[in-house]
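Response to reviewer comment R2.3. The reviewers asked that we include at least one raw input/output pair. We reproduce the pair for Lipoprotein here without editing.
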Amino acid sequence: MPARRPARTALALAAVALLSVTATACGDTGGLRGAGPTTTAVSPTRLWPDLRPASSPAYPYDVATRETVKGVTVPGGDIREVDPVKVVEAELTAHPADYGPKGTYHATVERMRQCRPGGEKDRCPLLEPYHRDLTGDGRADLTLGFRLYPTNQTAVRVYTVEGRRLVRVLADNDALLGVELAGRALIERSPADTSGYEYRTTWVWDPDQRAMVFSRDEYLHVGDGPHGRRTPSPSASPGAR
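Raw output as returned:
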């Protein structure tokens, strides 16, 4: 680009001249001052270049979960017409190893009965449902949360519609401080084992796997308040953690 060099030089000279005039008119007030030496950039140093790479992950981690919900229809393909209570009850029925008498979350079944008409609503473990497009297809999806008794964990589930089928595209259980929807991402906040810190896990839609996948896990300082210990979540099914 040699032809542009004279134009850039002339522009630079004009800028210097303008600064000189300004400095002369205003004296020393507002003059340019050095900010001190610039820190030298250092490129990353690769450690142990001869280290043999691992061939498998240290711990299994399910990044995508998909499961068609049996026994629940989607009237007119509109997920807003689906009864969230029936959706959770379908999961309880489909996974007796987790919700049966000897399951980790066995007390959830009795609590879910309180979500039906005539039940004690303050004992219902189902949280308020949210409808938002998380898959990017222009249609609302369903985000559900329900407490997992007798533990202190909360189940987070996301469902979408394929044809007339209700499909679960995210299943995660954890001890939660909060859950957020940011655009088409779902963010879970969980307590860390260090006071003043928390974990934030982000899930986003993957069109190839057709599921919400784990995309980021952050360990953040949020203040000096106490936080409990975060423990791995027992699997709710072979395809969910």
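Residues 114 and 124 are 5 Å apart (CA to CA). The mean pLDDT is 82. Further pairs are available on request from the corresponding author.
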